Amino acid sequence: MSDAFQWLYSPIVKEHFTNPKNVFDPDERFEADAEGVVGNIKCGDQMMFLLKIKGDVIEDVRWKTYGCASAIASTSMLSEVIKGMPIRDAYSIKPSDIASKLGGLPENKIHCSVLGDKALRAAIDSYLEKTGRAGAFKGEEAVTICNCLNITDKDIEQAVKDGARNWEQLQEATKIGTVCGGCKPRALELLHEFVHIYGAD
Amino acid sequence: MDKRFVYMDYNATTPLRPEVKEAMTADLDVFANASSMHEAGRRAFDRIEKARSSVARLIGAQPGEILFTSGGSESNNTVFNTMFDLGRTATGRRKIVTTAIEHPCVMRAAERLRDEGFPVAFVGVDGAGRLDMAALGRELDPSRSEGGPALLVSVMAANNEIGTVQDIRSVTALAKAAGAFMHTDAVQAAGKVPVNVREWGVDYLTLSCHKIYGPKGVGALFARKGTPLDPLIRGGHQEGGLRAGTYNNQGILAFGMAAELAMKELPRYRERVGALRERLRSGLVAAVPSIRVNGHATEVLPNTLNVSFPGAEGEAILLSLDLEGIEVSTGSACASGSLEPSHVLMATGVGPELAHGSIRFSLGRDSTESDVDYVLEKLPPIIARLRRMSTVPAACLEA
Predict the structure, then answer these.
(1) Do B147 and B223 have their domain in common?
(2) Residues of A annotated as part of the active site
(3) What is the pLDDT of residues B74-108, one digit of tens each?
(4) Which residues of B fall below an 8 Å CB-CB distance to A?
């Protein structure tokens, strides 16, 4: 409304939302070495990353997204961050890294920022596959969520890919949270995130 | 055009109209407890009763059938709470029949009764948001549906998101034929289309003051003389013992004035605001390719226009418009903090893609042609920009 009143999100989010960097333009004839698409339009967002890679370093990047302001801003920020970065480093960027670079996102908008890095990893995975190194970076960044049963974020991701959509189904698939239960809050967050990415059927 | 401020979210709430604001300021000194026996108390009580008559007139009711509450949510909850009380006792009727597009306060109140063991049916709507009357008939016929004879039918008079207006008279006829009580949430209908409890034949009707240019925090429940009512708030003799709590003098007096003005201006409002809506609708259809106008073409509130912009996401559209000084709302999940888009749009069968890309423009008595033209100037480039960076091609989702 008035200029003095702060916008809904941080000034950095506003800048990247109104002037997003590295957006794909079909007229530009961007010749990508790798492409990754993730997301589910049913959940309201979908993301595509295109990468130019030389000597395992990201030379240039373009992206497109169907998503909200936070999704647009976080993808724009991510695209800036990974320019000139070795693909191995880019592979391990987390949504929280991007959110903090944006000056923070509200709690309920964090899930909007989780697609960018997934699309980026999908693009890098496709590049690795193309260059005969399929799955080379996989598992490197797995984080243990349930210490009792040594269940990682990757296990939760896989369970969701295999069809788990709620806590009971996740427990059936992984036995997570059946010992001390201390991991449940974090595991539920991840479940929420992955269901968001891989679709709610 | 320079940046300006264009409010198009009148279904969310309306500003105080100047006459009401002025009267409220003067009435700030009407402080006495309207339940007191002294003169100041009786004066306040008298004013409140006059306001009750004004609110009653707006909907064709008798003053004694109007109960002042804190707002629409309380009025709706009072009805469902009464049904909870009735359903647990002798009548043998427990089934609640409502719709898939009600305001959340009705949805949650109905779900609470379901959790308490009441059979609850949410009747669907067609693509334009009109109630499926055949399905309603089935739900009211114990030989063709589960749950036994119906206790209550609750159908909103007009929808807040898409503006579709229901044929409450016909719904009431079905409800009454089945021996059920009939409630309608007329929060969005009042002041925008004719509302008459006698013509409709309803037993209960919900009103809210802040949707008709009065203050927030005050509403009303019409309960036809002789229908049961169980107080949601106990502990006082106010409102005939049906709603405890010291009278909200300023709110109630303002509600009376707002109701009088709404009634007086209704024909002019419908004509003027309806023309603005049409200007916006036809302008958007002409200026933005591949859009879908949601809701009913004719049975719709004169002020409400809900449009889906496939390929662009609703929160991104809303915030882009906000940066231009235009204030609207969206059915996108991204604006709600959940992953679920508008239950109303989903019930009309548009699908999540169109629901996420929906924007509700709700006009009001202060809206002008230049407000509409400003939106028509600012919105097309916003949609074009978002679509250019979108993975979802607009054409693929064309309705």
Answers:
(1) yes
(2) 43, 112
(3) 999 999 999 999 998 866 899 999 999 999 999 99
(4) 5, 311-316, 319-320, 322-323, 325, 327, 332-335, 337, 339, 341, 352-353, 356, 388-392
- Residue B118 DSSP code: -
How many angstroms from the chain centroid is the CA of residue B390? Answer: 33
Report pLDDT digits (tens) over B219-254.
999 999 999 999 999 998 999 999 999 999 999 999
Q: Look at B371 and A154; give whichever has higher pLDDT.
A: B371
Query: Which structural domain range is residue B188 located in?
Result: 18-262
Q: pTM for the full model?
A: 0.89
pLDDT exceeds cutoff 60 at A47: yes
Q: Scanning every residue of chain B, which has its alpha carbon at the shortest distance from the alpha carbon of A38?
A: B391
* B161 shares a domain with B295: no
A176: in domain: yes
- Residues B256, B273 share a domain: no
Say yes or no: B233 and B275 in one domain.
no
Output the furthest CA–CA distance in chain B (Å, rounded): 71
Q: Is residue B397 included in any domain, yes or no?
A: no
Buried b (16+ CB within 10 A) or exposed e, B259-297: bbbbbeebeebbebbbebbebbbebbeeebbbbbbbbbe
* CA-CA-CA-CA dihedral for B323, B324, B325, B328, to nearest 10: -80
Residue B397 has pLDDT above 50, yes or no: no
Of the residues B262, B290, B320, the one at which a domain ends? B262
- Tokens 């013992």 belong to B241
For residues A92 and A189, membership in a common domain is answered with: no
Q: Which helix (DSSP H) or strand (DSSP E) does residue B182 occupy? A: strand B181-185
Per-residue pLDDT, A2: 47
A155 and A125 in a common domain? no
Q: Tens digits of per-residue pLDDT, A113-139?
A: 777 888 898 899 999 999 998 888 876
- Does residue A46 sit in the same domain as residue A112? yes
Q: Which residues pair with B304 in a beta bridge?
A: B362
Shared domain check, A60 and A149: no
- Chain A interface, mutation test: which of B336, B353, B389, B396, most A Cβ atoms within 10 Å? B389
Indicate if B183 and B292 belong to the same structural domain: no
Looking at the fold, whether A184 and A156 belong to one and the same domain comes out as yes
Q: Which domain holds residue A28?
A: 11-130
Burial zone of B314 (CB within 10 Å; 0-12 exposed, 13-18 middle, 19+ buried) = buried
What is d(CA B205, CA A164) in angstroms, rounded to the nearest whole number? 44
Closest C-alpha among B133, B187, B135 to residue B301: B187
- Same domain membership, residue A122 and residue A36: yes
